[in-house]
């Protein structure tokens, strides 16, 4: 697995949710991209699973390291002789599934968390290579693929990755934990020191400042909305390589915008302090199934998001938020303005979380496959996917 972002969150929640009386868990993870949340989770994870760090498991393409990672994973599988291997993310998915096939593991599952070929920056030959790899491993080294959204499954089917009956939609879920009030969250984030008053509307996001999240569209929407409503503040909770681009853009928009826009960096408590926002704005180019939107709904915060895979299965326009076309600043600003002026009830937004996105439901569905209780017949899987999409 890669120990960052949604992949990390999914794996951690899965380990915490599995019954230790029925499952003996070993986690092989990379070390080059450990995020702060994963480091904080380590003591608890060590009580629940055997952790095996693998320095050679890196995101960058490196044949030497990939061969080293393959040898390391094979050695662990040979030692533990598992009944089930579950691989997460594209790169680790290839190495893990190849190792499992070579070591004759009976059941091999895979969760891509957004296929690499879905990224818009990959086209032509690079995309063809990613598709070919996913297709071969899906058909020859995987018992079943768990897609985190119906849109991700549709992308797999369109690319010919595997047959319909070997792709199963199990959406991400999170625990229903206590969340601070709006006022408590604002105090925890130090909004007073940023010049954000108690009653000021705040539009925010908790995300990395990276290309996939398209933070420049967030920045441009913020400037557009503030010009129309000077009382609104925009808060970007996260860090990343595009932070300087966002700050420079806002500074260039003049004091009126610069004084109402804030990048406050990474916060380990972001999943609950999202309650400080009045509207959550996510401008991603693509997603698998974003945890941040689910966290927002748990806190009762309505969402404005791009009409991208994953996003459009969390947001229900007119119920818990609104959608707008990817990269469309004008439409995004209009959606934010509408959400600020006519927000849905927070309890209604939270109800959409409780109905579909609980971690207990996610873990239960995956665990039943681990135990071989669900036969992946085409009819069953199509029926269950349709039921989930309708919820």
TrEMBL record:
Keyword 4Fe-4S in annotation: no
Glycosyltransferase subfamily 4-like N-terminal domain location: 5-174
The keyword RNA-binding is annotated on this UniProt entry: no
The entry's keywords: Glycosyltransferase, Transferase
Gene3D superfamilies, alphabetized: Glycogen Phosphorylase B
GO terms of molecular function: glycosyltransferase activity
Top-level taxon of origin: Bacteria
InterPro entries for the chain: Glyco_trans_4-like_N
PANTHER family xref list: GLYCOSYLTRANSFERASE
Name assigned to this protein: Glycosyltransferase family 1 protein
Organism: Bifidobacterium catulorum
């Amino acid at each position: 697995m890669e120990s960052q972002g949604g992949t990390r969150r999914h794996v951690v929640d899965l380990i915490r949710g599995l019954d230790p009386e029925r499952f003996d868990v070993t986690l092989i993870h990379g070390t080059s991209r450990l995020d702060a949340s994963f480091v904080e989770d380590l003591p608890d994870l060590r009580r629940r699973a055997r952790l095996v760090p693998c320095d050679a498991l890196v995101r960058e393409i490196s044949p030497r390291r990939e061969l080293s990672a393959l040898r390391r994973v094979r050695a662990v599988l040979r030692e533990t002789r598992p009944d089930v291997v579950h691989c997460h993310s594209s790169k680790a998915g290839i190495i893990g599934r190849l190792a499992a096939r070579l070591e004759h593991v009976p059941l091999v599952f895979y969760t891509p968390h957004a296929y690499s070929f879905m990224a818009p920056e990959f086209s032509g030959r690079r995309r063809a290579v990613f598709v070919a790899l996913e297709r071969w491993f899906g058909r020859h080294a995987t018992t079943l693929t768990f897609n985190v959204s119906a849109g991700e499954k549709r992308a797999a089917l369109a690319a010919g990755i595997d047959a319909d009956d070997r792709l199963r939609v199990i959406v991400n879920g999170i625990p229903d934990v206590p969340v601070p009030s709006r006022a408590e969250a604002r105090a925890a984030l130090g909004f007073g020191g940023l010049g954000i008053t108690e009653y000021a509307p705040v539009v925010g996001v908790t995300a990395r400042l990276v290309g996939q999240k398209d933070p420049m569209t967030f920045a441009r929407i913020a400037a557009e909305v503030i010009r129309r409503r000077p009382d609104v503040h925009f808060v970007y909770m996260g860090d990343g390589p595009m932070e300087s681009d966002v700050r420079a853009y806002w500074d260039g928009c003049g004091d009126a915008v610069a004084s109402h826009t804030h990048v406050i960096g990474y916060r380990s408590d972001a999943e609950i302090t999202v309650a400080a926002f009045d509207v959550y704005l996510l401008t991603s180019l693509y997603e698998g199934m974003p945890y941040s939107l689910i966290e927002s709904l748990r806190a009762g915060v309505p969402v404005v998001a791009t009409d991208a895979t994953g996003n459009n299965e969390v947001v229900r326009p007119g119920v818990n938020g609104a959608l707008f076309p990817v990269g469309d600043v004008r439409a995004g600003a209009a959606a934010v303005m509408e959400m600020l002026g006519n927000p849905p009830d927070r309890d209604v937004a939270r109800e959409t979380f409780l109905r579909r996105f609980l971690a207990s439901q996610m873990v239960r569905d995956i665990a039943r496959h681990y135990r071989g209780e669900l036969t992946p017949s085409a009819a069953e899987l199509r029926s269950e996917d349709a039921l989930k999409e309708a919820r």
